[in-house]
Amino acid sequence: MKINNKVRVILLILLVLLISGACAASYHYILGNIRHQEKESVLQDIKRVRYLISDSRDSLNVVSADFSAWDDTLEFVKNPSRKYVLENLNYNSLENSRIDMFAVLDNSDKLKYIKVYDSKQGKDIETPREVIDFINKNSRELSQHMNVYSVGSGIISVNGQPMIISFRPITDSKYEAPIGGTVIIGRYIRDRFIDKGEHIIDANLSIEEARSSDNRYGVFIGNDSRVRILDQDDALIEINDKNNITGYSIIRGTDNNPIFAIKIHENRTLYNEGIKSLYFYILLVVIFAVLVFVMCLTLLRVHIIKPIESMSREVSNIELNDDKISKIRVKGNDELTQLSIEINSMIKRIEYSNKKIQDSEKQLKLVLEGANAGFWDWDIENNYIYFDEKFLTILGYSQGELPNSSEVWRKIVHEDDLDYSLKCFQNSLGKSVNIHIIEQRVRTKSDDYKWILNQCKVVRYDKDNNPKRMTGIITDITDKKKQEEELRYLNYYDKLTGLFNRGYYEYVIEKVSKSSSLPVSIIMGDLNGLKIANDTLGHAQGDKLLAEAANILKDISGPNALISRYGGDEFVVILENIDSIKANEICLAIKNECSNRKIGSIYVNIALGCSTKYDASQDINEIIKEAEERMYRNKLLEDRSARNSIIASLTRTLEEKSHETKEHAYRIYNLCVKIGGILGLSTDKLDELYLLARLHDIGKIGIDSKILNKPGKLNDEEWEIMRNHSEIGYRIAASTPDLMHIAYGILTHHERYDGTGYPKGLKGEQIPLLSRLLAIVDAFDVMTHDRPYKVRMTVAEAIEELKRCSGKQFDPNLVEICIMAFKS
Question: Which domains does the chain have, with CATH numbers?
Fold first, then answer.
């Protein structure tokens, strides 16, 4: 067998078996698992968007409750008046409540009044035909109410856009009058919802029209594309290409037919990271194959390698750069002999190629001139550098004005770039770098500096692998560098305030975390009243308020402070060599200065919090977090001080009359905040949760103290009285402007997940999310703390009780999340 065939047979058998087997297993198992995880991630994002829609529906139900259970609305359905419309359906009311459609049906199922408001245009518009048709077609169903507490909701299509509707029976504020008609309120799912959804899922989100196809299992989405969605699946994942994946899920209307579809477009980050891991695995396989290859070489050495070595030594002594290249000896009558003949033939071709290369170098000079690039050629053995005319023209020199040796770089390269440049040249002389690219400043004849891009490479070595010749080209990149400087400024500074921006802050905080200039104090600031300024005075005045706040921080913090605009109305001040005492003095000075400055009628007011790092081992992120928490506590205190004193009075009355304590409310709130973080609740929801935690049992101030504090079990009559506290609390909150938004949460906080709660008998997700969450946390806190009528349980016993009531009294999904929070 010939040598070539021996090598092929041995290597192919081993390498093909090893590589093909490993690759097949990788593609079938690893890629399949990656794709499965990727689709699960998209499905989770679809669930989050559906949760947002459900939450928006709950929010609209609260708004419809405010209008339906109201004496003025009851009077309006009987005697429509312009006064009601002007006072309650004006621009501010509709805008604040985010109402896009308001309609009233009388007891005869006739449309008594309808108004459609366009929030984008800020005015009333003609009622869309789809709204009229929907109400006329479904007026009977809309007006069928089980009782005065009934509520219905759904989604309809209006002008190609989804609108959530909520309809309730009209009664008086005490829920005692007979049903006088029906209130229908609509709200579009628009840009604000889309922006919030994209922020939560960190992907592109859109809602497109959908309609049923001829096939009852499919729907049409949008104008062009058709997506088939199975009923039992209700979602579809499509892989567009290697970088994009799209998920679809239908939204059903009030008639349970598909009318819209959620479309989520995401980057395939998980997939691409998995591909990288797969490549790494394949690399390991290749390394293993190389090891096998080495073993094969050992086996084959006796048969193949030794005969080749002698010929290899002759080949290695050939100097290919000489004008006349020596030939190797031809001997024997086997494959090696034929190989020797081929090598000599190749040497002839190399001689011919060398001549062509010399001609090509001449042509290269012409190309460089056309590319506006300068050329230099360094004879390393003689330390002589040749500069072409274009090189000299770029720098403004003439022939003979620059030294023709390597010392030229020391003369013309800027001193700040010299060490780096010389190091790069030195690295280029070795074989570790194929080509080296250096950006450096060089002095021109006029004694100023230009930025040049210097690309160099060793093009010839001697027989001992020592470099003999290096060549390079330069191009003028001065204009490019100026543009980069301008972009760098825009990347690091906030245009409105002149402070550093968030990007620079994230850049510099890493350096500060490693700095030895301790102590380092961090001040977090949040501008209060910016929304009020924007809403009342306009965004131009709001911008002035931000700029004035920035000026105060700069004036008080001093020239050595690093001040950044951290967010829309948030700032962060980094103070090196400043301890906590001095930092607190600065905060106080900022507060005092704020009381002296105002924009229009609004004083500058900044909520502040600070923390100090004394030890290098402390994590700077923990310091920042502590400062931020203190800032939020400060902001919360200021918000409460500006709020109506009725809230404080109500909570004091409750604490004095019953065993409900401030500590109970705060414990509930702290647990809810922890769970809210897991659920990804917004700041607004957390604020609402804070008030609900404090005031959910406020209705108990209307219950006799003997019943409230009775040590034993309540009898049936006492229990009926006690059950009224949620309705009493609802009426108290509904009549207080600062508490109207939590009134429905107070009303429903004793509803049970299986529908056996009170007062309305709501079931499942009909109960608002915050009420479901509060019910679990309130029960846990009551069980784990002493009360006049019972001894507290252990945490483990309370958790077992929650599990027992999961799906009956409590939302099973929230129970699992709450238990995680209780154990942490």
Answer: 48-281 (3.30.450.20), 371-484 (3.30.450.20), 493-641 (3.30.70.270), 645-823 (1.10.3210.10)
